[in-house]
Amino acid sequence: MTTAGTHTFTWEDPSPVWLAAAHLSGLEIWRAVARGELPRPPIGASMDFGIDAVEEGRIVFRATAAPWMLNPLGSVHGGAIATLLDSAVGCAVHTTLPVGVAYTTLELKVNYVRAVPHDAGDLLAEGTVVHRGSRVATAEGRLTLADSGKLVAHASTTCLVVEPRG
Protein backbone atom coordinates (compact mmCIF):
# COMPACT_ATOMS: atom_id res chain seq x y z
CA MET A 1 0.00 0.00 0.00
CA THR A 2 1.39 3.39 -0.95
CA THR A 3 0.53 6.65 0.68
CA ALA A 4 0.52 10.04 -0.90
CA GLY A 5 0.87 13.53 0.41
CA THR A 6 0.28 17.02 -0.74
CA HIS A 7 2.37 20.14 -0.62
CA THR A 8 0.40 23.35 -0.87
CA PHE A 9 1.51 26.83 -0.06
CA THR A 10 0.27 30.36 -0.18
CA TRP A 11 2.40 33.29 -1.14
CA GLU A 12 1.90 37.00 -0.96
CA ASP A 13 2.19 39.45 -3.81
CA PRO A 14 5.96 40.08 -4.04
CA SER A 15 5.60 43.53 -5.64
CA PRO A 16 5.89 45.42 -2.30
CA VAL A 17 9.51 44.21 -2.14
CA TRP A 18 10.20 45.45 -5.67
CA LEU A 19 8.63 48.79 -4.85
CA ALA A 20 10.57 49.06 -1.57
CA ALA A 21 13.83 48.70 -3.52
CA ALA A 22 13.32 52.30 -4.69
CA HIS A 23 13.88 53.60 -1.15
CA LEU A 24 15.43 50.74 0.90
CA SER A 25 18.88 49.16 0.70
CA GLY A 26 19.20 45.40 0.28
CA LEU A 27 20.01 45.06 3.98
CA GLU A 28 16.92 47.07 4.94
CA ILE A 29 14.75 44.96 2.62
CA TRP A 30 15.94 41.66 4.12
CA ARG A 31 15.56 42.93 7.68
CA ALA A 32 11.99 43.99 6.83
CA VAL A 33 11.28 40.55 5.33
CA ALA A 34 12.72 38.86 8.45
CA ARG A 35 10.43 41.00 10.66
CA GLY A 36 7.40 40.18 8.48
CA GLU A 37 6.99 43.79 7.34
CA LEU A 38 7.59 42.81 3.71
CA PRO A 39 6.47 39.50 2.16
CA ARG A 40 9.01 36.78 1.60
CA PRO A 41 9.57 35.89 -2.04
CA PRO A 42 7.30 33.16 -3.44
CA ILE A 43 10.23 30.70 -3.58
CA GLY A 44 10.66 31.21 0.18
CA ALA A 45 6.98 30.44 0.70
CA SER A 46 7.07 27.36 -1.54
CA MET A 47 10.04 25.88 0.33
CA ASP A 48 8.99 27.38 3.67
CA PHE A 49 12.25 29.24 4.33
CA GLY A 50 12.59 31.12 7.57
CA ILE A 51 15.27 33.71 8.25
CA ASP A 52 17.52 33.15 11.26
CA ALA A 53 19.97 36.03 10.74
CA VAL A 54 20.49 39.06 8.53
CA GLU A 55 23.47 41.37 8.59
CA GLU A 56 25.50 43.16 5.96
CA GLY A 57 27.17 40.50 3.83
CA ARG A 58 25.51 37.56 5.61
CA ILE A 59 22.13 35.84 5.76
CA VAL A 60 20.97 32.53 7.23
CA PHE A 61 17.87 30.72 5.96
CA ARG A 62 16.23 27.79 7.76
CA ALA A 63 14.12 25.13 6.06
CA THR A 64 12.88 21.74 7.17
CA ALA A 65 13.57 18.61 5.12
CA ALA A 66 10.16 17.45 3.93
CA PRO A 67 8.82 14.39 2.07
CA TRP A 68 7.96 16.43 -1.05
CA MET A 69 11.67 17.35 -1.39
CA LEU A 70 12.82 13.73 -1.73
CA ASN A 71 14.50 12.16 -4.73
CA PRO A 72 13.92 8.51 -5.82
CA LEU A 73 16.56 7.32 -3.33
CA GLY A 74 14.77 8.82 -0.33
CA SER A 75 17.09 11.74 0.37
CA VAL A 76 16.53 15.46 -0.18
CA HIS A 77 16.82 16.27 -3.88
CA GLY A 78 19.92 18.17 -4.98
CA GLY A 79 17.70 20.80 -6.60
CA ALA A 80 16.15 21.67 -3.23
CA ILE A 81 19.62 21.92 -1.72
CA ALA A 82 20.82 24.09 -4.60
CA THR A 83 17.78 26.34 -4.24
CA LEU A 84 18.50 26.90 -0.55
CA LEU A 85 22.15 27.68 -1.25
CA ASP A 86 21.40 29.87 -4.27
CA SER A 87 19.00 31.90 -2.14
CA ALA A 88 21.50 32.26 0.69
CA VAL A 89 24.46 33.36 -1.43
CA GLY A 90 22.43 35.68 -3.64
CA CYS A 91 20.64 37.31 -0.74
CA ALA A 92 23.94 37.75 1.11
CA VAL A 93 25.12 39.79 -1.88
CA HIS A 94 21.83 41.71 -1.84
CA THR A 95 22.44 42.78 1.78
CA THR A 96 25.49 44.76 0.60
CA LEU A 97 23.68 46.75 -2.09
CA PRO A 98 22.54 50.36 -1.68
CA VAL A 99 19.12 51.72 -2.60
CA GLY A 100 18.23 51.13 -6.24
CA VAL A 101 21.08 48.72 -7.02
CA ALA A 102 20.16 45.17 -8.07
CA TYR A 103 22.03 41.95 -8.83
CA THR A 104 21.66 38.84 -10.88
CA THR A 105 23.43 35.50 -10.61
CA LEU A 106 26.05 34.85 -13.27
CA GLU A 107 27.29 31.51 -11.90
CA LEU A 108 26.44 29.06 -9.14
CA LYS A 109 28.60 26.09 -8.14
CA VAL A 110 27.30 23.56 -5.63
CA ASN A 111 29.32 20.78 -4.01
CA TYR A 112 27.32 18.02 -2.31
CA VAL A 113 29.27 16.28 0.46
CA ARG A 114 26.66 14.01 2.04
CA ALA A 115 23.08 12.93 1.50
CA VAL A 116 20.37 14.69 3.46
CA PRO A 117 18.07 12.00 4.89
CA HIS A 118 14.31 12.38 4.73
CA ASP A 119 14.14 12.86 8.50
CA ALA A 120 17.02 15.36 8.74
CA GLY A 121 14.88 18.05 10.36
CA ASP A 122 15.97 21.66 9.99
CA LEU A 123 18.63 22.72 7.49
CA LEU A 124 20.58 25.97 7.77
CA ALA A 125 21.78 27.73 4.63
CA GLU A 126 24.30 30.44 5.43
CA GLY A 127 25.49 32.82 2.73
CA THR A 128 28.51 35.11 3.22
CA VAL A 129 29.93 37.68 0.83
CA VAL A 130 33.56 37.16 -0.12
CA HIS A 131 33.95 40.20 -2.40
CA ARG A 132 31.65 43.04 -3.41
CA GLY A 133 32.99 45.24 -6.16
CA SER A 134 31.22 47.85 -8.24
CA ARG A 135 30.25 45.36 -10.98
CA VAL A 136 30.85 41.85 -9.61
CA ALA A 137 30.24 40.22 -6.24
CA THR A 138 31.13 36.75 -5.01
CA ALA A 139 29.74 34.81 -2.08
CA GLU A 140 30.06 31.42 -0.43
CA GLY A 141 27.39 29.30 1.20
CA ARG A 142 27.21 26.36 3.55
CA LEU A 143 24.23 24.08 4.13
CA THR A 144 24.34 22.27 7.45
CA LEU A 145 22.10 20.04 9.52
CA ALA A 146 20.79 22.31 12.28
CA ASP A 147 20.88 19.68 15.04
CA SER A 148 24.46 18.47 14.46
CA GLY A 149 26.12 21.25 12.46
CA LYS A 150 27.27 18.65 9.88
CA LEU A 151 28.05 20.10 6.48
CA VAL A 152 25.92 18.61 3.69
CA ALA A 153 26.76 20.97 0.81
CA HIS A 154 28.61 24.17 0.03
CA ALA A 155 28.39 26.63 -2.83
CA SER A 156 29.94 29.65 -4.43
CA THR A 157 28.38 32.27 -6.66
CA THR A 158 29.36 35.14 -8.87
CA CYS A 159 26.79 37.91 -9.23
CA LEU A 160 26.58 40.89 -11.55
CA VAL A 161 25.87 44.14 -9.72
CA VAL A 162 23.37 46.14 -11.75
CA GLU A 163 23.40 49.91 -11.25
CA PRO A 164 20.31 51.89 -12.20
CA ARG A 165 20.35 53.46 -15.63
CA GLY A 166 20.64 57.22 -15.57
From TrEMBL:
Pfam families: 4HBT
Keywords recorded for this protein, A-Z: Hydrolase
A single GO molecular function term of this UniProt record: fatty acyl-CoA hydrolase activity
Name the UniProt record assigns to this protein: Aromatic compound degradation protein PaaI
Chain segments annotated as coiled-coil in the UniProt record: none
NCBIfam families: unchar_dom_1 (TIGR00369)
The organism of origin for this protein: Paraconexibacter algicola
Family assignment from sequence similarity: Belongs to the thioesterase PaaI family.
CDD domains: PaaI_thioesterase
Domain of life: Bacteria
Gene3D superfamilies referenced in this protein's UniProt entry, alphabetically: Hotdog Thioesterase
Residue ranges constituting the Thioesterase domain according to the UniProt record: 74-149
